[in-house]
Write a structure and sequence with these properties.
CATH topology of the largest domain: Aspartate Aminotransferase, domain 2
Largest sheet: 7 strands, mixed
Helix content: 40-55%
Number of helices: 14
Shape: globular
Low-confidence stretches: none
Bound molecules: 4'-deoxy-4'-aminopyridoxal-5'-phosphate, glutamine
Strand content: 5-15%
CATH class of the largest domain: Alpha Beta
CATH superfamily of the largest domain: Type I PLP-dependent aspartate aminotransferase-like (Major domain)
CATH architecture of the largest domain: 3-Layer(aba) Sandwich
Distance between the termini: 48 Å
């Protein structure tokens, strides 16, 4: 037995909550509404394209930036939806999911001593990626229950050491969105600075018409002042119901993308080739697929809400993403992590505690709120609803 002791570079980090809760769901036989993934199949036409490309020879390394046809489809989409022009050769890179895009953007830019501002609740990969690269995460709060950015607080947190701001709209876990006014304020605030922006927009195609942006996604790519300092990240896993494929992309202006690719080539080199070809074909043949996604997921959200009517769980506003926050204070005063474990073991429905997105706040002080994923079939939501209404 080795006596070697390795001082951890991530001393405060354990196993990610998504793995912990999915594992507990599977051990206990609970309905898994914790980790975000659909329990239905992707489009058969997309799967057919994978089979096609596996047999047509796309089995060796793809080119470094990603399959050209896929980069073209991405650039076309971003131009059509957000009026933003990205050069296919130099400003679009296909990544191994959004997670790798986020990590790579941070690794390419953040140096020891740099500060990176995050809005908490923040997706759990951001802070460890910053710390692994020697940076310091600085947290701005998105306060419960509105989860809105506070620009006075953001302005106060900016310092000469701020290298980057990471934002996530639509927001996992709260399903809120940045408005056009929010983006304009960020643009104005950053104009006199050299601060970079990393914009995690993986839920860009899941924004509901009853929210403040009336279904419109405010990408940072829409504003020239933000576009020129931003890495914009998205994920095919979310949009095409294929989270297991781990394919996403990053957009950035030429000079930033050149640095991104220097890191990308040694972090992952290139991404799964046949899947990229299949996605390119599918995007070209079915460009309307993403346009129909909001109506599809709005219906899933409403199906979950119908199931929860008459329960003691209170639904919070959800304008986007495939996550619904629930206030459980009428049922229990347990802190959210303990409640999520109790809910999984005793009620048979697995959920995610929101404090997992909030590394700086004492979990005992966080609101009594958990997150459910509604990217599920009717049968799953009905079965979960029966269990939750008994509480
Ligand atoms: N960012 C956010 C906000 C997410 O919810 C996820 C979820 N998976 C990711 C990034 C990572 O996406 P991917 O699976 O494509 O790495
Ligand atoms: N993004 C997904 C979620 O929030 C999970 C991704 C993961 O398991 N790392 O549930």
């Amino acid at each position: 037995m080795s006596s070697l002791v390795l001082p951890s570079r991530l001393p405060r980090v354990g196993t990610t909550i998504f793995t912990v809760m999915s594992r507990l769901a599977s051990e206990t036989g609970a309905i898994n509404l914790s980790q975000g993934f659909p329990d239905f199949s992707p489009a058969p036409q997309l799967l057919e394209r994978v089979t096609h490309h596996l047999h047509a020879g796309a089995n060796q390394y793809a080119v470094l930036a990603g399959v050209l046809a896929l980069r073209e489809a991405i650039a076309e989409k971003v131009g059509r939806l957000y009026g933003a022009s990205y050069d296919v050769g130099e400003e679009v890179t296909v990544t191994a999911g959004a997670t790798q895009a986020i990590y790579t953007a941070i690794a390419a830019c953040v140096r020891p001593g740099d500060e990176v501002i995050l809005f908490s609740p923040a997706y759990d990969s951001y802070a460890p990626a910053i710390e692994l690269n020697g940076g310091t995460p600085v947290f701005a709060r998105l306060g419960h229950p509105d989860y809105r950015p506070d620009f006075a607080q953001l302005a106060a947190l900016l310092s000469p050491r701020t290298r980057m701001i990471v934002l996530n709209t639509p927001l996992n876990p709260a399903g809120t969105v940045w408005t056009a006014e929010d983006m304009a304020r960020l643009d104005e605030l950053l104009r006199p600075t050299d601060v970079l922006v990393l914009s995690d927009e993986v839920y860009e195609h899941m924004i509901y018409t009853d929210g403040p942006s009336a279904g419109r996604h405010e990408s940072v790519a829409r504003l020239p002042g933000l576009r020129e300092r931003a890495f914009v990240v998205s994920s095919f896993g979310k949009t095409y119901h294929v989270t297991g494929w781990k394919i996403g992309y990053c957009l950035a202006p030429r000079a930033l993308m050149a640095e991104f690719r220097k890191a990308h080539q040694f972090i992952v080199f290139v991404v799964n080739h046949p899947m990229q070809c299949a996605l390119a074909d599918f995007m070209q043949r079915y460009p309307e697929f993403a346009d129909e996604l909001p109506a599809f997921y709005q219906q899933r959200r409403d199906a979950l809400r119908t199931q929860l009517a008459g329960s003691r769980l209170r639904v919070l506003p959800c304008h986007a993403t495939y996550f619904q926050l629930l206030d459980y204070s009428a049922i229990s005063d347990l802190p959210d992590t303990e409640f999520a474990v109790w809910l999984t073991k005793e009620a048979g429905v697995a959920a995610i505690p929101v404090s997992a997105f909030d590394p700086v706040v004492d979990p005992a002080q966080t609101p009594r709120v958990v997150r459910l994923c509604f990217a599920k079939t009717d049968a799953t939501l009905v079965a979960a609803g029966e269990r939750l209404r008994r509480l």
